[in-house]
Write a structure and sequence with these properties.
heterodimer, A: alpha+beta, Methane Monooxygenase Hydroxylase, Chain G, domain 1, 3 domains, six-stranded antiparallel beta sheet, globular, B: 287 residues, alpha+beta, Ubiquitin-like (UB roll), Fumarate Reductase Iron-sulfur Protein, Chain B, domain 2, 2 domains, five-stranded mixed beta sheet, two-stranded antiparallel ribbon
Chain lengths: 664, 287
């Protein structure tokens, strides 16, 4: 096993967790990242990391409830055994991070402090100030540095992953990558390649994601035959600060403390916001949802803000979509006391003090629930088999995916403070499986024993791509195409999805995809050429963009973050009890029909032209039967009752059938 | 807290402004100024200006040019990548707002690469020496391993509040740019020298020179941790070695430029005192 190596691509939480655990198992790791790993996108996570803990346990919480909240939050599109395993490991993951020196906030007695997050009733979330992701990443970065000194980890920072290398049987045996400083292309031999490259927010132009989150690494796996799951499931956060370069998050707590959302009734009113009289302001959330006001659930807030700007044309600005989030009616000293930290972020990046001037905010693409399809080995009782090489493997043997780039933990919608957990968990859990894989490599099949020609061919292909891009004279500008792609994706495939718009977007993206092949570079040099690297990443955004659009078009339902009003099940209308009950029965029939038809993973594969084919796969819902998410729906109580009766009847019947089977 | 007024007084904004970039095509090549006139828009930052320059692909006067090369990632001032010298001040370019810069400096924006690190190209520099310093001072908690061994030691709120600011260091390099004791080391791979041998020579040279305030502060952070304290001695050996704490000239520039307001001079003072004890203890151990 001495010469065996694992190549990890991406050094965020998932990649670093995998690296450090593999090193502990004595396995040599090449860790490749386009950026120094300490600067990975995980640093942007603010809120915290979830687990059941001693205190919540005594209030009735347990791992099963964490699992249930995650599945319910994901609208049942998550695979249940991996989520179950993750929830069971969560307390241990936090204990480990605590031992590694993460500066978690403490209680007066010295325990880890916890806060409450969305989608749960329990205070499960451990946090380190407002920079939990940064703190967790640093702890893992430090451990990996320790292994680097020990000699088990070799870092390749400032290398861009270009493609996995497959042998004739379709097994992954390494990768081609490019040094982003010297532009050297080289092949890496590896007995397993692990992709841990995060989300694909840059397909939307600007998002809350970092500049490296292009999705290009995932796309490069797709282009050699990997499957992509649930691409259309993209989480949009309701309140972000629109910037010319990036959309930065504005915490929900601004509304929690009394912030009011409004637009001028006159479209693009040029007066300063404070001089617009009350009567000429449209407090659309308060008017439309008198009971909840500005604190409607997150998805509704997102949809309404989007709607008022995009469909009603009431954006505050003409060229940019945004609404006011107004705190100026609250005393400045009180604001500083309660919201100082987040208001300072707004001031830092906008140069405007939100205590005195209303903030301008808009929803922003935030997280990719979808990603590379990965497998797992289920146990009888619905957990994962520790040490199985099937865990986290893509459909390409020996090519693995962990972290945000994998698809099966968050279903159609991710719960707050679960992303840091899934990244660290999947990274750690992968390692023993790889150990098993490496121990069982057939004679003569180890990467270091493979013929050089395999690597030379793959390298030559990438060298060709590089050279032909440099010589391209088609006249297209990659930066402008990226803006156009971002605009069309943001318009069609974020908050509200309409089939005509998606069909139209598919056409536009197809045309852009043709134009992107004809990019002329303004830099044709061979030293630190960011122009050519960006253009490659941009071209590789297209297969995933197309998979997102097609997946969204074909999913004619509402599920989690995927919202299609034309296919929404309406609330109950009758006031009469009998009729209402009947309506609830019909509602449940329709819901069941929908479950049968759409509770499936969308699986995209890409042909040689980068066009996606969509198929569907069953989701493992064996642990927790699907139930409707009814928040705010008229008649929710009665629907819930009917659905519960049906589920228990079904479970009783299944039990009886099983008993009869045993008896016979 | 932040100074404010209801209507912030500011200079009238120009129609356009000039961005002056100190460019360099690669190591060993000459530096030169390039000029770009950018139409004014509200709410720009230095990153978005560089993005506009990339999309345009030409200098003032119409001469075609490659996009300006620079480092960035998070654009929220937490990753540390996009540090450069902007109108004479070292800082992150994501949080450098054009409206504010125009108010302070008039209609010219000047961008230079940091001077304490080798320029890779244009505004991009090689800060690998900073990460080498973290290796030298053993900036980690030496845990037994990653199996489930229960929670870490209990810690007081006060201890967390002292450690947290130190752990916000994003290795951005501002403190080193401002430090008079930290000078640039630029090494070239010699012909016939393997990449591994070159890396080793670089690490040795870096280790023999000043580690810098960021690394000194990390020593404080890990010596403070209840488990980290167990190998405090090794860290103190490293920080009192060649290129260690004794090189600091106490100019106190570092703390003034730190974007995270890390109390670097307090860390330096702490290590200064600990170093004295450490050296004395070593004497007694040996006697």
């Amino acid at each position: 096993m001495a010469k065996q190596r694992v190549l990890i691509v991406g050094g965020g939480l998932a990649g670093l967790a995998a690296t450090m655990k593999l090193a502990e198992l004595g396995i040599a790791v090449d860790l490749m990242s386009i950026t120094p790993v300490k600067r990975s996108h995980s640093v942007c996570a603010q809120g915290g990391i979830n687990s059941v803990n001693d205190q919540t346990r005594q209030l009735g919480d347990n791992e099963w409830k964490h699992f249930d909240d995650t599945i319910y939050g994901g609208d049942f599109l998550n695979h249940q055994p991996p989520v179950n395993e993750m929830a069971l490991w969560a307390p241990k993951v936090i204990d480990l991070m605590d031992r590694l020196g993460v500066t978690f906030n403490r209680t007066p007695e010295g325990f880890l402090d916890r806060r409450r997050f969305g989608g749960t009733l329990y205070k499960r979330t451990a946090f380190a100030g407002a920079t939990t992701g940064q703190q967790l990443l640093y702890a893992l970065d430090e451990q990996v540095r320790r292994w680097e000194v020990e000699g088990l980890v070799k870092k390749y920072e400032a290398w861009d992953f270009m493609s996995p290398i497959l042998d004739d049987a379709g097994v992954c045996v390494g990768a081609v990558a490019q040094d982003i400083v010297t532009m050297e292309l080289r092949s890496f031999r590896a007995d397993a390649v692990v992709v841990a490259t995060g989300g694909c927010g840059l397909i939307y132009g600007r998002s809350t994601m970092s500049m490296t989150c292009t999705g290009s690494a995932a796309s490069r796996c797709l282009q050699v035959g990997a499957k992509y799951g649930n691409g259309e499931c993209i989480q949009v956060h309701p309140t972000a600060i629109p910037g010319a370069d990036k959309l930065r998050l504005m915490s929900e707590s601004a509304r929690g403390e009394g912030g009011r959302v409004w637009v001028p009734r006159t479209p693009q009113d040029s007066r300063s916001p404070k001089s617009i009289p009350e009567a000429e302001r449209y407090y659309f959330l308060e008017e439309r949802y008198p009971a909840y006001g500005n604190l409607v659930p997150r998805d509704i807030a997102t949809r309404e803000i989007f709607n008022v700007c995009v469909n009603e044309g009431l954006s505050v600005e003409k060229d940019r979509q945004c609404v006011y989030l107004d705190l100026t009616h609250i005393d400045a000293a009180e604001l500083t006391r309660k919201l100082g930290g987040i208001l300072d972020i707004y001031q830092k990046f906008q140069g405007v003090d939100p205590r005195y001037t209303p903030m301008k905010i808009f929803p922003a693409v935030h997280y990719s629930m979808g990603g590379l399809w990965t497998d797992y080995q289920r146990t009888e009782e619905g957990r994962l088999e520790v040490g199985s090489p099937k865990n986290q493997v893509t459909n390409i043997p020996n090519l693995y995916a962990v972290g945000e780039v994998d698809y099966h933990y968050h279903g159609a919608n991710r719960l707050g403070a679960n992303s840091l957990l899934s990244c660290i968990f999947s990274g750690l859990f992968l390692a023993p499986g790889l150990e098993t894989l490496l121990k069982n490599v057939p004679e003569g099949q180890a990467a270091h024993e493979r013929p050089q020609s395999l690597y030379d061919t793959a390298l030559a292909k990438q060298a060709d791509r590089h050279q032909s891009l440099l010589k391209n004279t088609g006249g297209e500008n990659p930066y402008l195409i990226h803006q156009e792609l971002g605009n069309v994706m943001t318009k069609a495939a974020t908050v509200v999805r309409v089939n005509e718009q998606l069909e139209n977007a598919i056409g536009v993206v197809h045309d852009l995809g043709e134009r992107v092949k004809r990019c002329s570079l303004s830099d044709t040099g061979s030293w630190s050429n960011q122009n050519v690297l960006f253009t490659k990443a941009l071209q590789d955004m297209f297969p995933i963009a197309k998979a997102i659009l097609k997946g969204a078009l074909q999913r004619d339902e509402c599920r989690g973050a995927h919202y299609k009003p034309a296919f929404e099940l309406p609330g109950l209308t009758s006031e009469n009890y009998e009729e209402r009950h009947q309506q609830a029965e019909q509602w449940c029939d329709k819901f069941q029909e929908n479950v049968d038809k759409f509770l499936k993973s969308t699986i995209a594969t890409i042909d040689a032209d980068g066009e996606p084919t969509i198929t569907y796969e069953e989701v493992d819902t064996s642990l927790l039967p699907p139930r409707p998410r009814l928040y705010g729906l008229v008649g929710a109580d009665i629907i819930e009752k009917v659905w519960k009766e049906r589920t228990s009847a079904k479970q009783a019947a299944a039990k009886a059938a099983k008993a009869a089977e045993v008896a016979s | 807290m932040i100074a404010h007024s209801e209507e912030t007084p500011s200079r009238p904004k120009p129609q356009s402004f000039t961005v002056k970039v100190l460019r360099k095509n690669g190591p060993g090549q000459p530096s030169y100024w390039a000029y770009f006139t950018i139409p004014y828009e509200p709410e720009l930052n230095v990153i978005s200006v560089l993005q506009k320059i990339a999309a345009r692909g030409q200098e003032d006067g119409g001469k075609k040019c490659a996009p300006v090369c620079w480092d960035c990632n998070c654009l929220e001032e937490v990753c540390g990548a996009c540090t450069m010298v902007i109108n004479g001040k070292v800082r992150q370019s994501c949080s450098a707002l054009i409206d504010v810069l125009l108010d302070e400096h008039g209609s010219t924006l000047e961008l230079r690469p940091m001077t304490k690190f080798p320029v890779v190209r244009d505004l991009m520099v090689d800060r690998s020496r900073m990460f080498q310093a973290l290796k030298k001072v053993k900036a980690w908690v030496p845990v037994d391993g990653y199996y489930d061994l229960g929670p870490g030691p209990k810690q007081s709120m006060a201890a967390q509040e002292a450690a947290y600011p130190l752990s916000e260091c994003m290795t951005c390099g501002c403190c080193l740019e401002a430090c008079p004791q930290y000078s640039k080391i630029e090494l070239d791979q010699q012909s016939g020298e393997s990449t591994e041998a070159f890396q080793e020579r670089k690490a040795e040279t870096f280790d023999a020179n000043f580690v810098g305030p960021h690394a000194i502060s990390q020593v404080v952070l890990f010596n403070m941790n209840p488990t980290g304290e167990m190998n405090k001695r090794e860290r103190m050996d490293a920080i009192t070695d060649e290129g260690g704490i004794q090189v600091c000239g106490n100019a106190q520039n570092c703390v003034a430029v730190c974007p995270k307001h890390i109390p670097l001079t307090r860390s330096i003072a702490k290590i200064g005192r600990d170093a004295t004890f450490h050296t004395l203890k070593k004497w007694f151990d040996w006697s």
